[in-house]
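Why do we bother with holo predictions? Because pocket geometry can differ from the apo form. Keep that in mind while you read this record for zinc ion.
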Amino acid sequence: MNEPVLILNINFEPLHICNTKRALALVFAGKAEIILNGRGMIRSSTAEFEAPSVIRLGHMIRRPRPRISLSKREILRRDDFTCQYCGRKGRHLTLDHVVPRHQGGPHTWQNLVAACMYCNRRKGGKQLSEVNMHLHRQPFEPNATAVYRFGQHVKQNEAWAQFIEGW
Ligand SMILES: [Zn+2]
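The structure, written out:
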């Protein structure tokens, strides 16, 4: 009952991921329909239900364009788990403030990058020009496209790809 279910807006825009239990509650309340049943059946003592993989709401949800929340995990993901100074890939990456905090560098998408421990130590709280280091690319706030937000789930839920692409 805790498997992920993709929720689509009435216009098929991917909105969120919830679990099977929440998805079935929406379906039973008449607020959503099952678009894709990829999870077989669920049996209770009295009944049998389709277990949804994708559901679609029966009404339009209007909301501001989503943004990716700033976190270490999302910075590393944006940078493809690659040190932005030397190009090393790895798990033991740190966050580096390009303009150091103590020099007024803000905690923003544009001033944070993934850095390996070696480069982080080498940079040592200085400006890039002081240590002759260079960024592979200018850091940016990622667009919160559906592929960016939900794409990592497609490996486990291949049928979702058709619902996610293009949004
Ligand atoms: Zn590095």
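DSSP finds six helices and eight strands in the chain.
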